[in-house]
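Justification of computing resources. Each target in the renewal requires a structure prediction run like the one illustrated here; the chain below, 229 residues long, is used simply to show the kind of job we budget for.
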Amino acid sequence: MRHSVPKLVMVINCPKCKEKKVIKNGTTKNNKQQYYCKMCFYRFIQNYTNQAYKLDINQKNVQLTKEGLGIRSTARILEISATTLLKRIVSIGRKINQPIISKCKTYEVDEMCTYIGSKQNFIWLVYALDKNSKTVVSFNVAKRTNKTLSRVLDTLKLSEAKKIFTGRLKNYRYLLDEKMHSVKRFGTNHIERKNLTLRTHLKRLNRRTICSSKSLLIFTAVLKIYFWI
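Resulting structure tokens:
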């Protein structure tokens, strides 16, 4: 009677859970040995030809994006294609959720002009900053209309904001209650400084440059990464 030979347990660590209960698990299309972890059920190979499959690629992508590198620069450093990088940025952005907003806080709201695709296609970034923690709690990217402003302001209203400081754009007077709204001098100092930081860190937001976002989807994903990771 023939007995089945058990799979050999390899003395290598799983790159995901760091456990040693790893067995051989066939080969890939390129005839590379594939391994399987019995603890976390992760399949992997030891030497990846395609850099995009490495476990830390998303973490490096986030780090370089927050440092303001462009798509092609990041792709060259990570040694992956620009198309793959764009897909990863969109995928990361979709998994990021808007942070929970605390009640009865004070916020600063401002808008920043940029463009998508060409310099004729103007678009506005509207976002709200917690005056105490200096964190971005909500943002919206669209045309400069009341609807665009309302998506950010409504979030603050639901959180029962104590005070909302804005610039002198007249649209805010129609969208906010007088008791809640303030156009006080120096009231938007923090968010104005944040605007400068954004333009410094994110190349696509620089005023005089050939760099720009060609896709609203990519632009939104980059902002989520920058604000909320």
